[in-house]
Design a protein that fits this description.
Blueprint lengths: L6 H18 L6 H7 L4 H8 L2 H23 L7 H12 L5 H16 L9 H4 L2 H7 L11 H20 L2 H15 L1
Helix pairs in contact: 1-4, 3-4, 5-10, 8-9, 9-10
C-alpha cells in the first residue's frame, strides 16, 4: 500500500509551483523542469495533483486567490465613491509588481481560446472577480444580483491592462481610466 497523500506537502508544493508559474509563465510548462525547480519529482507532482491539467488548475486558482486577497487587503477602506474604488483597483492591479499576475491572466486567456479543454473553469478568471467588484461598486450597481456592472468594469480594466502591457504607455492608459471614471459620474 502506498503512502497516503500529505495535504501539508501538497499545499507547500502548490505555493512554490504558483510562484514558479508567476515567474516563468505557462507556455511550454513541463513537469520535469518544474519538479526540478521545486526540488521534487514529476512523479510526486502527479501523485499530489493527479495530472498536469489538475496541477495547472490548482496553480491558477491559487494565483486568483492570492490576487483577490491582496486586492481586498490593499484597497483603502475609506474609499467611498465608485470612482475612488475604481481608481484604487486600477492603481493596484496596474502596479509594476502585479505584472506577473497580469501576464498570466493574458496567457491563460490566449491559450484558452485555442485550447479551451485545458481550462474547464476558465470563466472563473472573469466571474471570480464579481463579488469583489460588485461590493466595490454597489453605489452604481443595478441591484445585488447585478453582473453587468462588474462585467463592464472588468472589461475596461482588462482592456487597459492589455494596452498597458502591450505598449507600456502608462500615461495614455491612466488617462483612459480617468476618462472612464468621468463617464461613471
Amino acid at each position: 500500500m502506498g503512502r497516503p497523500p500529505d495535504p501539508a506537502r501538497r499545499e507547500a508544493v502548490l505555493t512554490r509551483a504558483t510562484d514558479y508559474v508567476l515567474a516563468h509563465g505557462l507556455a511550454g510548462l513541463s513537469l520535469r523542469p518544474l519538479a526540478a525547480a521545486l526540488d521534487t519529482s514529476p512523479r510526486m507532482l502527479l501523485y499530489d495533483f493527479g495530472s498536469k491539467q489538475e496541477l495547472v488548475a490548482a496553480v491558477l486558482a491559487e494565483a486568483r486567490r492570492r490576487g483577490a486577497a491582496r486586492l481586498a487587503g490593499d484597497l483603502p477602506a475609506g474609499a467611498a465613491s465608485p470612482e475612488e474604488r475604481l481608481r484604487g483597483i486600477w492603481a493596484w492591479i496596474s502596479a509594476p509588481e502585479r505584472a506577473p499576475y497580469v501576464r498570466l491572466i493574458f496567457e491563460v486567456h490566449a491559450d484558452g481560446l485555442t485550447h479551451p479543454e485545458n481550462y474547464p473553469d476558465r470563466g472563473e478568471a472573469i466571474t471570480g472577480w464579481f463579488d469583489t467588484l460588485g461590493a466595490a461598486f454597489r453605489g452604481i450597481a443595478a441591484g445585488a444580483d447585478d453582473t453587468m456592472t462588474p462585467t463592464l468594469v472588468m472589461a475596461v480594466i482588462r482592456g487597459l491592462l492589455f494596452d498597458l502591457t502591450t505598449t507600456g504607455d502608462r500615461h495614455r492608459a491612466d488617462r483612459a481610466m480617468d476618462r472612464f471614471c468621468e463617464l461613471l459620474r
